[in-house]
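[INFO] parsing input record for ABC transporter permease
[DEBUG] input buffer:
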Amino acid sequence: MGIYLLLHLRRWMTHPFRNIVFLLFPCICFLILAPLVERTAQESAIPVAVVNEDDGLYGAIIISRLQSEKRIRLETMTRNNLEKAVQRGDVEAGFVLTAELTSMLHTGTVRDTVIWYRTSESNFDVFAKEKIGAEIMRIALNAKAANAVTNNASPSSESWVEIYEYADSFWEPSPLFTVSYTERQPGAPIENDADIGKGSKTVLGLFMLYAYIMGLASMMPLQKDKANKMPSRIALSQSHAVPFYSSYWSAMLVSSSLTFIIACVPLIVRSSVHESVEWVLWGLLLLCIGVSFSFIVMASSNRINRTMFLLAGIGAASFILHMTYVMGAEVIPISIVKALPHYWLWNKPAFIGGEI
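[DEBUG] output buffer:
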């Protein structure tokens, strides 16, 4: 079989630059597009204007925490400019932290500490409102706890600031009392903690489809070899053509697997390495199974090119139909969706740590 593998390598080396470009194409696209997508997501954050009229510390704390929220694009300005920006629609809404904010929150009072400017066209500002409200309640509750302790404590007890900081520690990294929501789709399995997210799974599905097509393309020379009766001549001289076909199967596996692994390297680097490697290996296993099945179909066909385009179309349909299912559209019955390779890419079976 080694002779036939060398033949495949020589064919590959006839157009090395073209083949290297095809091999690296998904990796290059990911490296270029991923930062652009992240930048677009940042630019699509909710634009909100804020005016800090508070002379105390709490106003600056609230603004600092709002600026760390990725879903909010915060713009600081004067109250006059804020009203104009809201009226023009430059921002979704505006919030004014009043001059009495620190003194009122210091006593645990939250009413009339913030003025909310919005128009009838404001639709997405409620999230910013809730975020500001949560920060105000956090400060007010901490201050109220510190007031209650210091008013009933002996002179040797901790200071008001120490008690405030101790109360505030229960809010990090997440509030002590919180509600955890689990996102579910009807008929879909529960996502576990090792999930890499829908965006990464979608990219992984695209990489698997591209690598699968690359594997199919590596079978194209078989059409010419069959036309020249090469398998028949080899079978006559060696009593069988197993090494010949095995070399095509090996070339198909190497071509698709190498493309998939190289494409996934930046995905692994940009996300949690442990979970990403686990999902990449699962995708690689599915890819090898699909490629091996496709090899059997193509090797037994007398019209290699037509069969290749048919199999590529089935692979593309698997990705597209599964994505419509993920987005909630019922294009085909769920029983058919569960037979698609991309469904199994997203939903690992229980024996390898999945949920189904």
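[INFO] The two ends are 40 Å apart (CA to CA).
[INFO] shutting down worker
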